[in-house]
């Protein structure tokens, strides 16, 4: 079945889910397999090991791979690390930052939300002031807020946080940045990285991907109150993850076997094949700049206020004058699926294009040119109509 | 790609995950598709509608299809329906009943666990006495406890509960019974049915399947305290499920798109193709009796104390004298994967065989004969060694 070819379909270039390689889709069609079988155990173990590589988390990173979504990763961070009354800061660069605040409040956190202007980032001054005004248990940063296409300067923020509030746990929402933006878990001193499979990793959705530091797990162990959730309690999952990594099966809840087979194929390509991880990030940046430059030539603007805070795995693109969301169905008719605006204040003024994974790393597909051609066609038609 | 054939593999006859039909696996390899696309919306809607049919829940049933596992369905029931101090009863027929009690206690329930002798069921007297001794918010029944192969008399228990404690919400853990045992949600007056995709539904794991009654949703609305979880808060999911059913997309967290395509194919086969739903249940019973009769001829016993409380989708089989778990790798070497014992008190004395889904409904596969032949071979070899 190695000659499996997926069905013809519209090109999926939203900021996730993204296009999936044939080999990954075929792995997602692995025949029924026991979650405790000798065949499956090393597959799960491989995924755990390779995830550490992708995040440069080989010193202290403990992966958690659990059936669920990216959002469930927030929930896990909140439920496992927050106790009622804990102070938390949410660096808010759009829809996803704000929602993460709701999540932490569910677990009794007193959340200070530092909200950047739309398309901008939180200033160093505002961040430091918030850190200094209180003892902060946890700070969350959305690495790429998919609603604005803003890329947070995560390394820089982490350094500031270490300097001004070294005990604060740092959680990076990397749902839309893993494998498309560089994340150095150990070097930056991150405590939690939250992601999912359907974006830069290039796997179908349905698997929550979390990396936790030794310090995060110590915080969990030192809780005064029990973890207020059952399914996402890391105390239940830690022995499972360790067992599979060590080569034996252990049961708490059934893992999504086929998705883990699919993730293994995707992670092998990312960690062992060309481009290398470093080249992958450089390539995403190069392609992103090309996409943005070409769209600018068509009169498009961008939601991020400057290029240096714009994501490399997606673009939040302002419609040129005279053009509206009416172009989205026209793009779909040309077999190019982009996403509409999501940030409530500006939703009707922009659209979103994903450029991640195989769309970026496999130039022979011609995905990028197809997107640019389609946008050019519909924008030109609209303007001349 | 309609001629897709899955890779050759060992026959998977554990009590879930089970064998998956080629057409379902192919749907699980659907190309990357937007979770809010016009292509996907009706697929999700179809699944919601067809699930009601499978559970005879067309009067008041509200399905929730959320990325996760069967265990996450327990968590959803606990988090959404229990408030600290609520009384709950767990009808405990094995490992899964006992674990459900842990789950409810996480949310502050005062749990009375009525534990049946291993292989037996809770008596009417014990059930009624527990119901009468307190005001009970929620009672949970594991329909088929996979650890013992015991089938709870769910209709009978429901009737008793309605008679003696009509306000008590009834939750049926149907992870290992949906689509292999009859469940009449409306007629029996169930409030919650919890399942997953990888057992009788014949889909890969990774999707939590829950049905909630109007009464359960009222209980949720009348809570005095907020739902103490973020991701599995039904208040967040209800508008999503309703939107997809009505034909529009709405976002809270990304659904597992490919698994929902796969579920659609599986549910269509169950609700629209031969055998009919009624015939499907009868067929599972017939095949179950055949398997049990044939295994008995080899000297096997059974964990359930009598045939009328034995599941029809699986068998918990006691090793014949002189035979032990050492036969499991020998069966695997014959390409037949069964499961070992799970109940801690008797784990080494029995094994478990699943007979669900295509293994039962498609006789042309020859799965059942293959299992029986393999067991006969290894038991005979072992006894004569």
Order of helices and strands of chain A: EHHEHEHEHEEEHEHEEHHHHEEHEEEHH
Bin the helical content of chain A: 40-55%
Strand order of the largest sheet of chain A: 2-10-9-8-5-3-4
Query: Can you tell me the CATH class of the largest domain in chain A?
Result: Alpha Beta
Cα Rg of chain A:
21 Å
Range of strand content of chain A: 15-25%
Largest sheet of chain A: 7 strands, mixed
How far apart are the first and last residues' alpha carbons of chain A, in Å? Answer: 48 Å
Secondary-structure arrangement, i.e. CATH architecture of the largest domain in chain A: 3-Layer(aba) Sandwich
- Average pLDDT of chain A works out at 97
Low-confidence stretches of chain A: none
H/I helix tally of chain A: 14
CATH topology of the largest domain in chain A: the name is Aspartate Aminotransferase, domain 2
What would you say this structure looks like, in words?
The structure is a homodimer of 385-residue chains. Chain A is of the alpha/beta class. Chain A has 2 domains: 11-16 and 275-384, Aspartate Aminotransferase, domain 1 (Alpha-Beta Complex), CATH 3.90.1150; 22-272, 3-Layer(aba) Sandwich (Aspartate Aminotransferase, domain 2). Helices cover 40% and strands 16% of the residues of chain A. Chain A has 14 helices and 15 strands. A 7-stranded mixed β-sheet of chain A has the order 2-10-9-8-5-3-4, sandwiched between helices. In chain A, helix 3 (70-81) packs parallel to helix 4, helix 5 runs parallel beside helix 6 and helix 11 runs parallel beside helix 14. Chains A and B meet through helix 3, helix 4 and helix 10 of A and helix 3, helix 4 and helix 10 of B.
């Amino acid at each position: 079945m190695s000659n499996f070819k997926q069905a013809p379909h519209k090109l999926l270039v939203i900021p996730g889910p993204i296009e999936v390689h044939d080999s990954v889709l075929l792995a997602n069609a692995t025949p029924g397999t026991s979650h405790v079988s000798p065949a499956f155990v090393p597959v799960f173990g491989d995924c755990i090991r390779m995830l550490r590589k992708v995040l440069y988390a080989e010193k202290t990173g403990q992966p958690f791979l659990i059936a669920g979504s990216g959002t469930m990763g927030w929930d896990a961070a909140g439920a496992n690390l927050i106790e009622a009354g804990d102070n938390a800061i949410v660096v808010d660069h759009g829809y996803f930052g704000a929602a993460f605040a709701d999540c932490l409040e569910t677990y009794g956190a007193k959340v200070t939300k530092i909200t950047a202007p739309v398309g901008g980032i939180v200033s160093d001054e505002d961040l430091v002031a918030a850190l200094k005004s209180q003892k902060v248990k946890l700070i969350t940063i959305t690495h790429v807020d998919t609603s604005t296409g803003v890329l947070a300067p995560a390394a820089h923020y982490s350094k500031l946080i270490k300097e001004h509030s070294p005990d604060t746990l740092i959680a990076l929402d990397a749902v839309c940045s893993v494998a498309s933006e560089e994340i150095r878990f150990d070097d930056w001193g991150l405590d939690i990285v939250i992601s999912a499979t359907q974006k830069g990793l290039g796997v179908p959705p349905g698997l929550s991907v979390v990396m936790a530091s030794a310090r995060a797990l110590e915080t969990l162990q030192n809780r005064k109150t029990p973890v207020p959730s059952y399914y996402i309690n890391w105390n239940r999952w830690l022995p499972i993850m360790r067992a599979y990594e060590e080569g034996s099966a252990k049961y708490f809840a059934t893992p999504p076997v086929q998705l883990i087979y699919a993730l293994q194929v995707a992670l092998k390509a990312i960690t062992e094949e060309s481009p290398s991880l470093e080249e992958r990030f450089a390539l995403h940046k190069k392609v992103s700049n090309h996409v943005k430059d070409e769209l600018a030539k068509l009169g498009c603007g961008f939601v991020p206020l400057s290029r240096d805070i714009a994501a490399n795995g997606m673009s939040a693109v302002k419609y040129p004058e005279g053009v509206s969301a009416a172009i989205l169905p026209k793009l779909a008719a040309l077999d190019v699926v982009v996403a509409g605006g999501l940030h409530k204040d500006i939703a009707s003024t922009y659209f979103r294009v994903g450029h991640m994974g195989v769309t970026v790393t496999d130039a022979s597909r011609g995905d990028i040119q197809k997107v640019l051609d389609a946008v050019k066609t519909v924008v030109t038609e609209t303007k001349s109509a």
